């Protein structure tokens, strides 16, 4: 018997798809529980889930799907690796994989699997993931180093497994009721589905479709206690080695690589390291006219002979982009939405120059105590763990959504697992020293960068880009008499007008009312609700 709400689900999907915006890798799946008749419209439902995230893949690779009598799944593929042969799904020995991600230890895993007797038909990391699962089952996730969200179906027992990378670099949402499990890369795939309220699938989790239970953790990212006893010079050398290895693995592509470059220590270190391992690296900088980031980035790229594209935007440009940014970003937190307005233009510029792969400096501040809050927090080590654990729904969500909105895959070398584990375990005395944040990073790359970047203080994106308080003031003025009939603002504890404005913009897009905030005073921002400008 067909579950009674399939038709309403399908209708909702068509309604949402009609609001499709102009167009990277996105996945979606519908998995029924129990029997159903073969005429249930899974194909139409699946297409309607994939349409709103068509921007996550190439136009020509939209809707690579498989549909069975129990499930339907598909991907919009952004072809990066083995572009001619990387069609999804990949099926081997009764297992079928749909995958959004990028492995950074593909070669070593492939060699290990070949030694075990596995054969490969493509050069894709997707096939490596599936063969790793064939070899080691769920233990494969502890061997994989990369960013990913995936679902694997088994023909033998009609089971399935869902998994997401330990730091949540790639997104995944899940909705479950008594009749079906739905998953997708973004909230917008779910629409207003009766009986289905999507929730974020937590980083490092895997889900067993045989028992319909979630499990954590795929991989423990706690540091190796033995590394904590290295002397200071050894800590710096090890950090440098791990950082360079991370960048090298993240630029391992035959495609040109874009770097989002603010002129700060994080993006400058990534840019300098990337040029050691790839012969076609280009810097991209966006800001308002006269901004500090543009000035420093231009100087460095001119001195180093680095190809550099700059776009100066206006406040009118930023304000006009807000509805689009909120729709793509799926943000209701004001700070995340405002930061996304700058990222949006950066990735638009990257796309316009024909790039599909980018790298950035995100994650360094959280792991290395880069923000002012780390100097005043009573337990900065605990704050590092909180901020790192919250990246997937703040800064990394911004990176994913704004880059994928423009069909660009962005890699985050500071969140490479080996580097992240080591950094988490570092004594705080090498993270902040004599008032200088990210001391160990500055020491590790001191021979790669000029002093004016090496010693440049941390400048938050709104400050360095020239945005400062202008968008905040606009949002506050526009908040006016906004009312929330459901009392969402009161329930979430939103007090400032700009917070209420961005929540209203979020709800206008049809996204479900959030259950909780992801920004906490004293942990994500200071008690004033914003930042001190230094530029």
**Approximate shape:** globular
Strand content: 15-25%
Uncertain runs: 1-24
Helix content: 25-40%
Mean pLDDT: 88
**Strand line-up of the largest beta sheet:** 2-3-1-9-8-10
SSE-based structural type:
alpha+beta
Question: Main β-sheet, in a few words?
Answer: 6 strands, antiparallel
For the secondary structure, the number of strands is: 19
Number of helices: 20
User: How far is it from the N-terminal to the C-terminal residue, by CA?
Assistant: 65 Å
Radius of gyration over alpha carbons? 23 Å
What does this entry look like structurally?
It is a single chain. The protein has helices spanning 6-17, 42-50, 106-115, 125-136, 232-250, 265-277, 292-304, 315-329, 334-352, 364-368, 373-376, 380-389, 395-404, 417-424, 439-444, 451-454, 461-464, 470-479, 488-492, 497-508; strands spanning 26-32, 64-67, 71-76, 90-92, 95-103, 146-154, 160-164, 173-176, 180-184, 199-200, 205-208, 213-216, 257-260, 281-288, 308-313, 357-359, 409-411, 432-433, 436-437. Residues 1-24 have low confidence and may be disordered. Helix content is 37%, strand content 17%. The strands form four sheets. Strands 2-3-1-9-8-10 form a six-stranded antiparallel sheet, covered by helices on one side. The protein has a six-stranded antiparallel sheet with strand order 4-5-6-7-11-12, with helices on one face.
